[in-house]
Write a structure and sequence with these properties.
about 270 residues, alpha+beta, 3 domains, two-stranded antiparallel ribbon, two-stranded antiparallel sheet, binds zinc ion
């Protein structure tokens, strides 16, 4: 298995790598190891499936960004983040390409304009263990911990009974996919966000495995660069305040943030 794993990982970055077929093949092995009660090999198979899945999704994110499907890419980025977290919890020493993806995922998320999220407050009334099906009761632990892998199977809580207490708008969501959009259900949701930074990045980022990072520079612009700017307009610095209550009073000019994209990772 380990020899096979090394072989697979060596080819993960190949242009024509067949992620879905590899996952299906390894899954057959995983099921066989489970039947043989071979914990180490079953868990190893789970880890390889997870790694291959992370690479497959990362490539998908890249093409979604190319096609300006920014919200779809955002949701998949969250899935990748969760998969990497699951992997790190279960194996020692994660491979370099996964580390690379984890850095790029965080950088991409930081370039998104999303600030507000919907959050549901749910009271969980009953949950069971996905491995053994026993109810989670505080004093009677079944011995399986959510987030851990047992005999090649990922343990999670299955929620059977729950009650919705309310929905609220928050800045730091539990689920990143719950982005707040304008509009209502009838007209469909409208994506009113501005993706200038991602547009700028995608002009330069040509290959998912070509590393990049960005630096932020704070500069000031002269009001002359904004002809027709009135006191009552929103300040061009993006503070949300009126121009007359914001940068008009700054002798240096209008605050402006410049993102500069550069090749390579920071500190690597
Ligand atoms: Zn259990
Ligand atoms: Zn301002």
């Amino acid at each position: 298995m380990n020899k096979k794993a090394t072989e697979i990982i060596k080819h993960l970055l190949d242009e024509d790598f067949d992620y879905d077929k590899t996952i299906a093949d390894i899954d057959e092995l995983r099921i066989r190891y489970r039947q043989q009660q071979d914990e180490d090999n079953a868990n190893n198979a789970w880890a390889i499936i997870t790694i291959v899945g992370i690479h497959r999704d990362f490539r998908k994110v890249f093409s979604m960004l190319k096609n300006r499907q920014y919200y779809d890419a955002w949701c998949l980025l969250e899935q990748i983040e969760i998969s990497i977290g699951n992997l790190l919890r279960n194996i020692k020493g994660v491979e370099n390409t996964v580390k690379y993806i984890s850095v790029i995922v965080r950088q991409l998320q930081s370039l998104y304009p999303y600030k507000m999220f919907m959050s549901t407050e749910i009271v969980i009334k009953e949950r069971t263990c996905s491995i053994c099906g026993k109810k989670r009761i505080i004093r009677q632990h079944c011995g399986h911990f959510p987030g851990r892998v047992y005999l090649g199977e990922f343990c999670s809580d299955i929620i059977n009974k729950w009650e919705l207490k309310g929905v609220s708008l928050v800045y730091n969501p539990e689920h990143k996919y719950a982005v707040a959009f304008l509009g209502n259900g009838k007209e469909g949701q409208k994506d009113h966000y501005n993706y200038l930074l991602l547009d700028g990045l995608m002009e330069l980022w040509k290959d998912p495995y070509a590393a990049w990072h960005y630096t932020i520079k704070h500069i000031h612009k002269s009001p002359k660069e904004f002809p027709g700017l009135h006191d009552s307009d929103n300040c061009p610095c993006g503070s949300g305040k009126k121009y007359s209550d914001c940068c008009k009073n700054d002798p240096e000019g209008i605050k402006h943030v410049v993102y500069e994209f550069r090749p390579g990772l920071v500190g690597v």
